[in-house]
Amino acid sequence: MHIRHADVKEDSFESPKGTFGVTYRDYVDCEKSGCPFDLQHVVLAPGKKNFPFHTHGALWELYYVLSGKATMRTDEETVDLEAGDSYLCKPGLAHQLINNSAADFSYLVTSNDPPYDACYYPDSGKLAPSWRQLWGKMTKKWRFWQPKEGTEYFSGEE
User: Fold this and answer.
1) pLDDT digits (tens, 9 = 90+) for 28-45
2) Which of the four, 25, 62, 88, 89, has the lowest number of CB atoms within 10 Å?
3) Nearest in space to 123 (alpha carbons), one of 72, 22, 54, 50
4) What is the pLDDT of residue 154?
5) 23: closest CA among 43, 6, 38?
6) How many helices (H) and strands (E) are present in the chain, helices listed first?
7) Is the dihedral of CA 39, 139, 130, 56 positive or negative?
8) With the C-alpha atoms ordered 33, 35, 41, 47, is the resulting torsion angle positive or negative?
9) Dihedral, CA atoms, 149, 150, 151, 153, nearest 10 degrees?
10) What pLDDT does 158 receive?
């Protein structure tokens, strides 16, 4: 399968207040290709964060930096990334990219295609339950849970 950057449709999203947002091209999309991984080309503009700080239950992500500089925030470390660097986010590792530079940050991200994944957002306590494709276009159909009170593990189970 030959993929030419100029032939792949560019898409983007931005959060209501503009804190989060990227421009991206889906080079390989599991749903469309039947391939066991996705490959995206992503551009993170200056002053933006890619997504809220989050972790995946089953999804692996491998980032490869093409150009620019940004910060990878995880719950294990915070590191500066630049062209030629890679960063592997295993399931369970909370992560977020932050572009505090004056230039675009361009990267490739490859992820596996688990049949089930869910996201947890440590900064807000939200949980996004299962859906097949987390990388799809942001829609209002996405639903999140945000518990207001703690509960015991077996509450509601017996």
Assistant:
1) 988 788 889 999 999 999
2) 88
3) 54
4) 44
5) 43
6) 1, 12
7) positive
8) positive
9) 150
10) 44
